Amino acid sequence: MKRLEGRTAVVTGAGSGIGLAAVRRLAAEGAHVVCGDVDASSGKAAADEVGGLFVQVDVTDPEQVEALFRTAFETYGSVDVAFNNAGISPPDDDSILDTGLEAWKRVQEVNLTSVFLCCKAAIPYMRRQGKGSIINTASFVARMGAATSQISYTASKGGVLAMSRELGVQFAREGIRVNALCPGPVNTPLLRELFAKDPERAARRLVHIPVGRFAEPEEIAAAVAFLASDDSSFVNATDFLVDGGLTGAYVTPL
Ligand SMILES: NC(=O)c1ccc[n+]([C@@H]2O[C@H](COP(=O)([O-])OP(=O)(O)OC[C@H]3O[C@@H](n4cnc5c(N)ncnc54)[C@H](O)[C@@H]3O)[C@@H](O)[C@H]2O)c1
């Protein structure tokens, strides 16, 4: 499908996992893709693969974030889609009993403040166009509690969800849709690294997913393409779950 022909999509965290799969899918749908990542080699490789543009960006830095969206506009003439997706899940973010203030703050900066900065930078372009779709990566943990806690991560994703909903309401009549994408556990480097160190943690989670497996990044990218396109023109201010039934489950099949 070519639902995004001639449109410009900015993706953060473009070099890996969900971001990389989204870069590929958005490009396949016809978009010009601007790949933002703090990691220059993976971010540039993603852009090169799809004939897009790489912009090195630390999403916690306001000036770098503004430059990312400005570069997209100056190169391609519009900012139609913002997939604000960069995020971290470091091991020192754990139970509230063991998590220090610095670890808490770092995760809030990368996962939540970054989304604030990206939306703040993207919305003025979209208002001028009278059109735009913003997709902010939250998580199913914005909706469910876990006893395998990563306290700052969970709180940051709850913040992404609430902020997305509010922005979706505020700018709806200006043609701008804002949705929080809430993936279930996805088979990406972020998750593999976490679970390789602690297989018991992986097993404790897998048992709760009705479909019996983690998502593949391409399955999340398909939802991103839908939310980016006019096919989702009446989908706004949602917690868009792509979780294999995880949040709907009480008891899973044997
Ligand atoms: N993997 C999962 O199971 C899962 C589930 C739900 C939500 N998520 C969310 O999806 C998003 C992507 O996760 P992923 O699994 O693809 O992760 P990943 O680690 O594979 O990729 C994250 C990318 O973000 C980049 N990045 C990190 N910090 C950055 C910064 N300060 N500035 C710019 N770029 C930065 C990294 O370089 C990397 O390329 C995250 O927000 C994550 O919280 C992941």
TrEMBL record:
Instruction: State its Enzyme Commission number(s).
Output: 1.1.1.100
- Sequence similarity: Belongs to the short-chain dehydrogenases/reductases (SDR) family.
- CDD domains to which the protein is assigned, alphabetical: SDR_c
Identify the PANTHER family for this entry: 3-OXOACYL-(ACYL-CARRIER-PROTEIN) REDUCTASE (AFU_ORTHOLOGUE AFUA_6G11210) (PTHR43180), SHORT-CHAIN DEHYDROGENASE_REDUCTASE FAMILY PROTEIN (PTHR43180:SF66)
Oxidoreductase in keyword set:
yes
Which is a Pfam family this sequence falls into?
adh_short_C2
Which residue spans adopt a coiled-coil conformation according to this UniProt entry? none
What is the protein name for this chain? 3-oxoacyl-ACP reductase
- This protein's source sits in the domain of life called Bacteria
Matches recorded under InterPro entries: NAD(P)-bd_dom_sf, SDR_fam
What is the native source organism of this protein? Streptomyces fragilis
**Which keywords does this chain's UniProt record carry?**
Oxidoreductase
- The answer to whether keyword Zinc-finger applies is no
Query: Could you tell me one molecular function GO term of this UniProt entry?
Result: 3-oxoacyl-[acyl-carrier-protein] reductase (NADPH) activity
Broad enzyme group: oxidoreductase
